Amino acid sequence: MPLLEVKNLQVRVEEREILHGLSLTVNEGEVHAIMGPNGSGKSTLSHVIAGKPGYEVTGGEILFKGEDLLAMSPDERAAKGVFLAFQYPVEIPGVATMTFLRTALNAQRKARGEPELSTPDFLKKVRSVAASLNIPQEMLRRGVNVGFSGGEKKRNEVLQMALFEPSICILDEMDSGLDIDALRIAADGVNALRSQGRAMVVITHYQRLLNYIVPDYVHVMSKGRVVKSGGKDLALELEESGYAQFEDQAA
Amino acid sequence: MNVALVKPTSDRASGESFAAARSRLPGSGVVSEVREAAFAEFSKRGLPHRRVEEWKYTDLRVMLREVAPLAVNPDEAALNRAAAAVASLDVTDTCKLVLVDGSFAPHLSDVASLEAGVRLHTLREILETADNSTRADLLRTNATSDVMVALNAAMATDGVVLGVDNGVALKRPIHIVHIATQSNAASFTRSLIKIGEGAQVTLVESFVAAPDAKSYQVHDALVSWAGDGANVHHVRLVEDARDASNISTAIVTLGAKTQFNSFSLTSGSALSRYQAFVRFGGEEAVANINGVNLLKDRQHGDTTLVLDHMVPHCDSREVFRAVVDDRAHSVFQGRINVHPDAQKTDAKMMTRALLLSDEAEADNKPELEIFADDVQCGHGATTGALDDSLLFYLRARGLPEKEAQALLIQAFVGEAMESIADEQLRETAVATAARWLATRG
Ligand SMILES: Nc1ncnc2c1ncn2[C@@H]1O[C@H](COP(=O)(O)OP(=O)(O)O)[C@@H](O)[C@H]1O
Ligand SMILES: [Mg+2]
Q: Cα dist. B424→A127, B83, B91, B205 in Å?
């Protein structure tokens, strides 16, 4: 059984159709890249998978481990192992990062019927993950993402990914706004999480990220559809010829 | 008492209760005269209603309807029930001074452990025994002509009268605990606190109900003076029964170079009004006056502040937060008066209301009245719902809806709670908010 199956997905936002029948199948352990120009619907797809309100699914379905994902609340999806690394992680003043991490991790464990993690175990886990991502303890004492640079926000997303150990990670433009060093740290963090049981969907506008996170499959999205799929070489091809060739196909 | 003063309106019951209560009110002679004048004032004006500007959003003729009969002095059974309420207070490491149904209860109070430099009397004791001018002064104030303060002067049965000597730094908070044990009865208390120059004091006020006390009314006034250089922390925790009413007034006069740090948390009472009149009487004083109202069902919570900057170089900061659920109604009125002499005043007031339901309501009325030209003053008021993008972020990380909301609400009120210097008291405030959130439907 595939891990994630998006079948002929049609999505509207405010009466306007954004996704016009999109299909995507991801198996355990695979890394898929989705590339496409701005406005092609990449974030919309990631939001619908994570359960963000405001999107109307007018056709198709999404199965996760064979279950109807669209019938689940966002928190149920998280507990089942869906993780979205946001393109723009929000700042939450007044909610300490540590409190947030612990509350979230324990909420997921509770939903799965697992016992809460003890405070020492939790601290140990956070500290080791944070150290591997170059995240200083001082950052964890601040409000969630408050005053973080773009790179710090993205690293904080990777930190959560490592902590929650999801089955599928959707990374929405993890590279946007990062310089090369910040990108490398974040990408190393992601690569460390690649495993047989875990799949990744790496959404990006640029081929650059895919030098660091090398995908098994590449899909090109244009105007709300997947217009071409292939191996990792497809990304290089795109780098040379650009998206223009696909714009016509999608129309 | 001239019974003809009693008007044939909805205030009739109040008049009757004054006539009936008169014989039970402590003090005679000049005290009775002050009471009768105060009651005449109340009788003339009646309960404040929506056409009285200061009470525009809290119409007591509609919401309180009438003043309940004066509570009787607590008997032994009542004191035992009050003792249970004292035992279940969240704040423990304080010097408790307990008022039960408007009467000081010495056996429930930590009188023996009062620290050196603190002098304690009861209002009743002074009204009954002190010389004439002292007695009458306790029931007078020129800080406000508010009619509910006049009613309080007419009816006050007891309260604590404290003096803290110059330079004394108290180790433990002084804690005035108001406990209601009687249903459908009103208590009237007035406490007066004089804090000496350079003294350091933490004052806590709790309002709670003994088990089964219902539909009672609390009418309280707190009058305090902070001497030059005093450092005063003030925390009020209103956790009255959910069908009770609490009408409280604080009248504060600040000396030069005082630090006044006040925080009020209201989660109880069907109807509550907290009005604070703060007057800067000496230069270079700093006041932080913060508060949080947590309201649900059909609760109505009103916080009304009046700050008078009389002298130059004083700073005031107000941070208020209201969380309003169901059909509850929050009111915040804040008025900063900067008088002609008060140059270099730095006054800022910020109030925010968070509406958790479509039927929840919040009224914010910040006002600045400035008669000095070299000042920095500002105010802001916002009303809104929880931010959907923050909620989604938390839910995408596994938090169920209520938990995600709770985390954001705690952050929202936390900003106003940060100012509580005493760790125990701050934790109590945070825990009270958490408890309130846990009982949301
Ligand atoms: N909340 C919204 N309201 C209206 N239009 C939206 C909204 N979100 C996205 N869109 C539109 O949907 C299209 C796809 O956007 P998006 O999914 O963000 O693309 P991408 O992530 O590929 O840049 C764009 O035309 C965008 O303007
Ligand atoms: Mg996008």
A: 29, 22, 7, 14
Alpha carbon A78 to chain centroid, angstroms: 12
From first CA to last CA, the distance across chain A in angstroms is: 33
ipTM for the assembly: 0.96
Helix (H, G, I), strand (E, B) or coil at B280: strand
CB atoms A74 and B388 under 8 Å: no
Q: Is A53 on the interface with B (CB under 8 A)?
A: yes
Closest residue of chain A to B402, computed from CA coordinates: A75
Which tens digits make up the pLDDT trace of B36-49?
999 999 999 999 99
| A164 reaches B (C-beta below 8 A) | yes
Q: What is the pLDDT of residues B152-163, one digit of tens each?
A: 999 999 999 999
Q: Return d(Cα B47, Cα B9) in angstroms, integer.
A: 10
Using a CB–CB cutoff of 8 Å, tell me whether A166 touches chain B. no
Read off the tokens for A241. Answer: 């010829």
Nearest beta carbon to residue A75 from set B395, B407, B410: B395
This prediction has a pTM of 0.91
pLDDT tens digits, one per residue of A21-49: 999 999 999 999 999 999 999 999 999 99
Domains (range + CATH), chain A:
4-250 (3.40.50.300)
Please tell me the distance from the alpha carbon of residue A61 to that of residue B339, in angstroms, as a whole number: 68
The per-residue pLDDT for range B68-83, each reduced to its tens digit, is 999 999 999 999 999 9
Ligand nearest to the CA of A55: 1
